Amino acid sequence: MFTYFARFYEKYALPVYPIALFSFETPQRLQPDEHRVDFPDLAVLAFRFRVVQLNQMQWQDYEKRSNPVVAALMATMHRGPKEVARVKLACLRMLARLSLDPARRELISGFIDSYLRLTMEEEQEFGAELQELSPQEREGVMEIVTSWMERGLKQGRQEGRQESRQEGARTVLLRQLRKRLGDLDAAVEAQIEGLAIERLEQLGEALLDFNSRADLDAWLHSQR
């Protein structure tokens, strides 16, 4: 903190107000807010900075705010073991109240979802508490949740296409290898099945120069 302070102070020649934001869940002990350099005969430096330690803050004290930063950081504030679903709903309610452009809302909602993963039981609790909201609030929260689901489906489709492409390349490649080199033993096939799509494509080019099983074995060995 002192190094950052000194560099900014030197670069801009302006007063700098130093703040350290701690977002970790543990440890929960209070973090230091001072850096000192002392000698027996001289106190050279007593540099202090403001500490914002989120795991020492109560999320309930902030749930009525309307601030996008608070909506995100509430996800990392102190909470009880049974409060995860309630905190997530509170974060999304705040986010739904704010007039943010889609990109900012997606960024913050992704942060919230990453820090507040729900178990099956917590998902049920979340759904039950969601039904207690007014229709307008519920619609705002569901719009965010729906965007998560759509994003997840899109990612799943992309991963599915990637897996399908990889499986197709592997099948064709094994067929070509068997035609060129004869039957392959299980260990070699297992090695080929473990290759990423980029390596499969490289093997597809390399096999044109293979004349024996030794060529294939040497190529696989070079990929380890």
Helical proportion, percent range: 55-70%
Whole-number average pLDDT?
86
Written as H for each helix and E for each strand, in order along the chain, the element string is: HEEEEHHHHHHHH
Sheet with most strands: strand arrangement: 1-4
**Could you say which structural class the secondary elements and strand pairing correspond to?**
mainly alpha
Radius of gyration: 28 Å
Assign an overall shape: flat
How large is the count of helical segments? 9
Report on the structure:
It is a single chain. The two termini are 43 Å apart. The radius of gyration is 28 Å and the shape is flat. By secondary structure, it is mostly helical. 12% of the residues are buried. The longest helix is centred in the C-terminal third of the chain and has 47 residues. A hairpin with a 2-residue loop joins strand 2 and strand 3. The strands form two sheets. It has a two-stranded parallel ribbon. It has a two-stranded antiparallel sheet with strand order 2-3. It folds into two domains: 142 residues, no CATH class; 64 residues, no CATH class.
